[in-house]
Amino acid sequence: SPRHLSEMPPPKLSLRGTDLSPRQLPLATATPQAYGLGGQKEGGEPHVVGGETGSVSPEVVVAERSCKKFDIPITIIDNNFFKNGLDLNIALLAWNGLLVHDMIKKLYLHSEPYEMDLGGALKVYEKYAYSLVTNMHLALNQIKKQSLKNFEGVPVFDRLLKEACEAFEAVADHSRQKPIIGITGEFYLKLNDRSNKNIVSYLENKGFEVHVSTLTEYFHYSNYITLWIVKDQLKNKIDYVLHPDLVAEKSIRETVQKIIDNQEKHYNTITAPYLGGLLEISSEDLVKLGSKFVHPSVTGEPICALGKGGDYFYKNVKAVINIAPFNCMPGGVIDLLGEAFRKEYENIPFLSLFYDGYEDNYDRIDNFLSNLDN
């Protein structure tokens, strides 16, 4: 398959032959000794920035214990990371790194269906994803030289993204455009090829260009919607006196929102000449579109997924597919609102798919595609 990894410069650490879950891989890469994989990171002592959103996952617990065993510094990012005094430089590095990777992935998906040589787009993607990782220390040093208030971006990431745009443009021929299918849905499932049975490759082989809503879209939305809720709880002047913790959180999240909005706009500007009208919309616009079906106070994936579906409509996609895990309640809500979504957007073809780890849904996809106007 052209989506399999091709040869890259030899990494410092090989994960081939291991039996780690996808959630363990980033932790194992940063702390190879902890997983018995050997190897050592360059550029100083290794550390982990592990993310979790409420309940402590087994992977994070294992990583934390293992890191302590090998005297490896570890930072666990949870919902209280600002209150706990996490170095904001690391947060800025993580956010910008994720944004740039999302942009590289979008460039890849926009190029692969039009590549002139089989596997050419994948090689470019691998090269610049690898370069992104190897430039993390330089990026962190550039971030440390700036203040949070006057943060202007990461020059090494800007250069990398500009080079990636040129490289992707060189391997693809967009003279004949293909119809586009937009994919949205559950945060992890939509982004993991193995979990969604390689739906992107399957659709590409059927003659479509495929867009997938990004990793950072949900992070961006989560901060925005939490800020919305905090503001809603501070409607009256007395609330500012009674809830000083909310006042502090409002100030922090407004600062964060300004930074992430500015950085997303900045990277959109860099990729615009190549991606054209396929750029990301703001969280504010995403929530406005999703609010046609779900009130913002409900939060979660439905408003985000349906808002992205509306964005796809205005970008003239051929159809929208929402994917969710089997028995997922937010996925069920989106499925129930599918008919309302179609009516709102001129009967745009809309399909909900559920994955249980076994069924590939190819028959349902084929039936759905056969009803599209070609």
Structure description:
The chain is of the alpha/beta class and 374 residues long. Helices cover 52% and strands 8% of the residues. The protein contains 15 helices and 6 strands. The strands form 2 sheets. Strands 4-3-5-6 form a 4-stranded parallel sheet, with helices on both faces. Helix 8 (215-233) packs across helix 11 (283-290). The longest helix is centred in the last third of the chain and has 32 residues, at 244-275. The two termini are 26 Å apart. Mean pLDDT is 81; it is low at 1-56.
Summarize the structure.
With 374 residues, the protein is α/β, with parallel strands linked by helices.
Give the low-confidence spans.
1-56
Please give the share of residues in helix. 40-55%
Taken in chain order, the helices and strands follow as: HEHEHHHHEHEHHHHHEHHEH
Strand order of the largest sheet: 4-3-5-6
Tell me, rounded to a whole number, the average pLDDT.
81
Class by helix and strand content? alpha/beta
Count of individual beta strands: 6
- Shape from CA axes? globular
The biggest sheet, with number of strands, parallel, antiparallel or mixed sense and barrel status, is: 4 strands, parallel
In whole angstroms, how far apart are the ends?
26 Å
> How much beta, percentage-wise?
5-15%
